[in-house]
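Re: the 275-residue chain
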Amino acid sequence: MDGKIYRSEEEFLKDYDSSLYDKLSITTDILILSVSNEETGNYRKLSDKKFSVLLVKRDNYPFKDKWCLPGGFIKIDEDLEDAAKRVLKNETNLQNIYLEQLFTFGDPKRDPRMRVVSTSYMALIDKNKLNEKIPKNASWFNIDFTEDEKRINVILDNGYEFIKFGIKKILREKSTDRYDYIVDENTSLAFDHPKVIVSGISRLKNKLEYTDIVFNMMPKYFTLGELQQVYEVILGKKLLAPAFRRIIAGKVSKTEKYKTGEGHRPSVLYEYKKY
C-alpha cells in the first residue's frame, strides 16, 4: 500500500490489509457510587450517611476470587454507552440510573490475558431507593478515603471483608492540577480498579460545586441537613453553613412537606430545582 496512489476511498479500503496492525480488545468498567443512610440507634440524631461502592467477586481467572468493578467486553457492533448499560444490567441488575463516561485506561499490562483498553463509566444512585436485588456475588463496600498532596489511601469495608489500597500522586501538570496515579499497595482488588475508583471519586468531588450531580444520589424530598451530610461524606470534611449555602444556592426548592416522627422538631423538606 505504501507509495500507491488511490483514486477513491472505496479503492483504498478494498486494498487495505488490517492484518498489518496488532489487535486489541475493548472493555467497559463501571464505578457505581452511592450515599445511603446508616441508622445511629439515636432517634434524636440524623441517620449517618455512608459513601459506598458496588463491587463484584470474580468467579474465574484472572484474579479469581478477587473483588472488582462490574465490567465486560464490548461487542464489535456495540455503542460504548450501550455496552456500559448492558454490563450494568447483567452484572448488577441495575438500570436507568445516572451514567457518565469517566476515563479510558490503557496501560499495556493492566490485563494479563491480552492487550485490553477499558473505557470506564461512573454511575450514581441513592441506594435507599433500590428496588432491584443485587446478585449474590456483588456487595456494597463503605469507602474510607483519605488524601494529601502526595498520596491517596482507601479502605473498603462491607462488614465482612476489608480491601485496602494506596496510590502515589505524581503531579503531571501544575496549571491544571493533573496527577498520574501509581498503585503501590493493593490487597485484593483486581486489574487497575484502584485507579478507576480514585479517578471517579476525585471527579465527583470536583463536580460537586459547579454541577448538580449530587442530586442523582438523593431521594425526591430531603432536609437541608441530609443534603449537607451527603456533601460532607463525599468531600470528607465538615462544611460551614455559609459555604454549604453558597454551594446549593439556586439548586433546591422549599416544599410544603415536613419530615416528622424521628424524635426531633419537624424539618422542612426540599426538592431539587430542575428548572
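The mean pLDDT is 87.
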